[in-house]
Amino acid sequence: MTILIESLLRTTPFSETDKQTILKGIVQLSEADGIIDPREREYLKKFVSEFMPDVDPLAPELSGVKVTPQEVAELSSDEVVKCFAGFLTITAYSDEDFADSERKMISGLLGSRLSPEALSEIQRAVRQFLYRRVVFAFAFKNHYLHPDFAREMARRFDISDDDAIAINQGVFSALMAIKAPMQEVSDG
Predict the structure, then answer these.
(1) Average pLDDT score over the chain
(2) Angle at Cα 150 formed by Cα 42 and Cα 92, nearest 5°?
(3) Domain ranges for the chain
(4) Which of 1.10.287, 1.10.3680, 3.40.50, 2.60.120 would CATH assign to domain 1-114?
(5) b/e string for 157-186 if b means 16 or more Cβ within 10 A?
(6) Is the N or the C terminus of the chain less surrounded, counting Cβ atoms within 10 Å?
(7) What is the value of pTM for the model shown?
(8) Would you say 131 and 153 are in contact if contact means Cβ atoms under 8 Å apart?
């Protein structure tokens, strides 16, 4: 089962209650170590707004509030639960340290709605998604993908060599598709 996490995050409809539960969970996870790291704060401002533009992830009323098991049970669909797992995992990686306490919190919150195997698959999809974004940004900015950078990012996101090669090929194809029309315009 391959999950395309970005598609899931972009196309799953959320009720207002779903959004509030997801946001509370994201803030709860980012506050788990006592402070919101500046990278987590940046993530909250940019990334959450990318997927849910009509919400304020830094709203003060979300700080210090815990998601209850009842709220998780009331999420409106299995897809919303998967998105919740995805958003929490992305939040955990935002400070570049997916700590054991964060893993336990995520599995504790979602254990009643997701099997360990399903959660693991979602987290794998998130790692691939984050790796793809980082590699694409680097290659787009620098006009090439340095192998040492790609290896370090694959290690950081626990991406296998085979998966990294496949993702890198997809990034290269996407860059070629973007750059070809730009070159035709500048040549003409």
Answers:
(1) 86
(2) 35
(3) 1-114, 128-188
(4) 1.10.3680
(5) bebeeebbeebbeebeeebeeeeeeeeeee
(6) C
(7) 0.84
(8) yes
